[in-house]
Amino acid sequence: MREHVRRPYTEYQRFPEAEMQCRAAAFAAELRRRRSVRDFSAEAVPRRLIESCLDAAGSAPSGANQQPWRFVAVADPVLKARIRAGAEAEERAFYAQRAPQEWLDALVPLGTDADKPFLEHAPWLIAIFYERFAYDSAGRKQKRYYPHESVGIASGMLIAALHHAGLATLTHTPSPMGFLNDILGRPPHEMAYLLLVTGYPVENCTVPAIEKLPLSAYCEFR
Predict the structure, then answer these.
(1) pLDDT at residue 2 tops 70
(2) Domain segments of the chain: what residues?
(3) pTM
(4) CA 94, CA 116: separation in Å to the nearest integer?
(5) Is-contact 189 181, C-beta < 8 A?
(6) CA dist 94 to 80, 113, 179, 193, Å?
(7) Are 128 and 155 a contacting pair, CB within 8 Å?
(8) What mean pLDDT is predicted for residues 197-213?
(9) Is 41 helix (H, G, I), strand (E, B) or coil?
């Protein structure tokens, strides 16, 4: 059995309680300003900025520390055009055939449809995959534990990091997303989880007039 190694946790920082409250309230207010954007500017975003945000996402906790997330950051216009074509093909089938009317009714306030021009307009698309399993150095198959949960946490941290850096985001989930494996050359044991669109919003950008639930509506203390 592999030896269980531990080390001192020297990175932890504790703050005075008043400062903790200020930091928590400020962070909550910052994230409350985040909105999903569908109208992106073509203005370039430096790769280094995207790398820093992905580095933050890679610090997420994961089942058995297996870190099953894989990110592909796409700025190439040819690849973005192919991704848009693949996504819109799935979206047209979704809106015309797959989606029940109840689901379509729920989407009405958001004003979405099968056209996804933001997939070409935004400077970056980040395709997020999770490993269903992996292979060790000897080629033996290794199970991944809690990959959905782990990649979900990492994706949330990435969205927060991009917002904190000053970028707008949109989570896009065409279904199925197997076309991303084909376009981006990902292996069969990786499953597409999310397509995250990021960049600057266009000038005078608008968003749906919807509200987030207050804390009291989704949380209770006992």
Answers:
(1) no
(2) 36-218
(3) 0.93
(4) 13
(5) no
(6) 21, 10, 15, 17
(7) yes
(8) 95
(9) coil
